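Reopening this ticket.

The earlier resolution said the output was attached, but the attachment link was broken on my side. Pasting everything inline this time so it's all in one place.
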Amino acid sequence: MRRACAGAVALAASLILALPAAAEPLPTPSDAELAASIFPIDPKTAPIEARTRPVEERTTQGSEQVVTLSSDILFVFDKAELPKAGPAKIAELVQDVPQGAKVSVGGHTDSIGSAARNAALSQERAEAVAGAIRAARPDLALTVEGFAATKPVEPNEKGGEDNPEGRAKNRRVEIRYAG
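Inline output:
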């Protein structure tokens, strides 16, 4: 082992010695050059943080704990497959649910698309989340249901106009349990 380490050190030293010496040190920029290289932040990019949402939001509704998962972040458009990191995140979200608790998983969509497609998609997404919960917490008693666009939390339209922010909040999967 010692012989291998000594050989590696000798090789590294020979490589360093073989490097050419720097002809001249790099010039140091003046204060004026540094000041000229700094650009102000474009104010149009600042609101991006304000528009980002976490994957989940936790609320209490009466005696129920509700974990709302944003479908826009969790799922690809019109799909119900969880991303690779999805099951681990869902397992983390249900780790504090009491042992043997009754948990309901409800899928929701916005009003865009056919009622039949929204019914199927909301059920498929609820089942995907429930599958991750079952894998992480087999002790929990799950009920799973797709609600499509029947239980919006925000209007899908305002004043006869499309309401994209409201529709985004309606696309969700909710995990509910007594807490």
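Reporter confirms the inline version is readable. DSSP finds seven helices and seven strands in the chain. The mean pLDDT is 85.
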